Structure to design on (270 residues):
């Protein structure tokens, strides 16, 4: 079983964050050099003293690093995040903000604050093990999140949502993470949340500006890419695993959410 949390340095461990982005939420503290990447909407450049956060559900494209790139990166599984997320409203606001702005410049006391949080994570994750290891790391990650929300407080206060709205939205995201491989209808998720589909879409629009159906397509597209990149799986295997009723329906859906057919996607990503 893979660990629910890991921490590495690009120089000392000779590892890079993109290796893990499909299995973890990635938190990168840049010490030197430069990193380039893009989402579907925008390109980003991260420099020294920037904090970069890659959410599992946001595909990152065209990732590259300068030769002198040096960064610590903290990896947190989705299950661990769900278990130790300390506060619903700010978690929801933070999720939406980071999806649109994954690079956060740090300076002064904020840089010192986040640097200290990374050091504490190093001590707990890579050094001596604790009898209550998961709980100890979970508490540190909660501290990290509180400090992060403090850093981006001005941006987060713009969005006004209540506790019930944020709770439903986050539960919807966690349900998507669990079921998007096989379930692609808003009705399925609204039934799980004991609300009507129209209300779920209204909540998603109010919180993120994006309807529930688009969130479902986004999560499913991410899962499709992950499976299509696995060359050991045939297209038929993938269609069966994702519960498509026919190969033609599977191909049409892939073209809708990825812009190309399954075969074209594989050919372009060989």
């Amino acid at each position: 079983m893979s660990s629910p949390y890991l921490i590495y340095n690009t120089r000392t461990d000779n590892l890079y964050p993109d290796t893990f982005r499909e299995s973890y939420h990635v938190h990168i503290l840049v010490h030197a050099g430069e990193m380039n990447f893009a989402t579907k909407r925008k390109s980003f450049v991260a420099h020294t003293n920037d904090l970069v956060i890659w959410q599992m559900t946001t595909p990152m494209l065209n990732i590259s690093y300068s030769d002198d790139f040096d960064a610590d990166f903290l990896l947190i599984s989705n299950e661990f995040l769900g278990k130790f997320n300390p506060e619903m409203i700010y978690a929801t606001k933070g999720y939406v903000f980071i999806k649109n702005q994954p690079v956060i410049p740090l300076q002064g006391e904020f840089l010192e604050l986040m640097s200290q949080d990374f050091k504490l994570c190093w001590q707990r994750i890579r050094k001596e093990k604790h009898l209550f290891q998961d709980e100890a790391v979970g508490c540190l990650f909660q501290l990290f999140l509180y400090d992060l929300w403090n850093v981006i407080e001005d941006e987060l206060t713009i969005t006004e949502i209540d506790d019930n709205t944020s709770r439903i939205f986050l539960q919807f995201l966690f349900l998507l993470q669990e079921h998007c491989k096989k379930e692609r209808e808003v009705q399925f998720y609204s039934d799980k949340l004991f609300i009507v589909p129209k209300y779920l879409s209204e909540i998603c629009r109010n919180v993120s500006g994006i309807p529930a159906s688009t969130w479902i397509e986004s999560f499913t597209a991410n899962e499709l890419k992950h499976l299509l990149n696995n060359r050991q799986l045939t297209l038929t295997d993938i269609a069966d695993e994702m519960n498509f009723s026919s190969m033609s329906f599977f191909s049409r859906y892939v073209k809708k959410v990825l812009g190309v057919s399954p075969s074209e996607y594989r050919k372009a990503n060989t």
